[in-house]
Amino acid sequence: MRCLRRLALVAAAACLLPWVAHAQGEAWPARPLTLIVSSGPGAGVDTFARVLAERLQPRLGQSVIVENRPGASGMIAARQAARSAPDGYTLFLMPNTLVIAPYVLAQNAATVSVTKELAPVVMPVSTMMVMAVNGKFADSHGIKTVKDFIAVAKKEPGFAYSGGDNGSPMNVMGEQFHKESGLELTSVPYGGVAKMVTALLGGQINMAWMPTSGNTQYFRDGLLRALATSSPRRAPQMPEVPAMTELGYRDVQATAWFGILAPLGTPAPIIARLNQDINAVLKDPAMRARLDQLGYEPEGGPPEALTRQMREDDERYRRLTADLKIRAN
Fold this sequence. Notes:
By secondary structure, this protein is an alpha/beta fold. Helices cover 46% and strands 17% of the residues.
């Protein structure tokens, strides 16, 4: 009987050891992490994901693998993240487009509510959006300001422009400008920012609302011309470009941002550690220089800051998409 009792105690202790190790944070991270993104390789969110993953690895002592899961307006990636084990080994880098998704996608297409089914970790970066025109088109039509563009567009009723996917923050901006300016504009949807920018560079469209992230070189080279930004005030990356608000378009303002989320139920100590490490990476001077080069503004802060931003966007875009009658492609 004594032997049996001793064996039972040993077995019980063996079962408890992994739990104790996990509770004390000794076992995490013990293997590589996966960072899911909702776009294909080369897009803005993918570029930032890879830059972040590279710089997180030394702090975590584990590699961070970027996994591209494009499709279904980001729902494929969101669904995979939401259904992953809440063990700290799966993260989701989300563009704020997914906060808008429930209000623009067809019924039952928004299979995941990012505000309810994922746990906020941090909002790492934001990027300003600009009203951009094709450089050659701008030169040939003498377009240097928004006023110049309006004069040209008035002569071409139905002037084609794009804001990427219908329901994206850029599309909402475009439709707000369409309404406030009184112009007859035709929105041409493209499946993602990369395709839209390619069309703008090629002259298939001559005006677009687009993020600066990943596209700053086109403005430096004169291939594209920024007429105004969507920021509440002039942005440091383009101090010569006016904000729409100072031109009298008070409601035409918005910011695109990324959020990092984890499966709901991920232990709070792990979320705190991830938040701490990502904030440290964002404060590194070399990282900030790289982000500036790519057109991103470092944000950071506690998980609550991301929660607050998601709620604000949820409320704002619920109202705007209804008022402007915006639906997804």
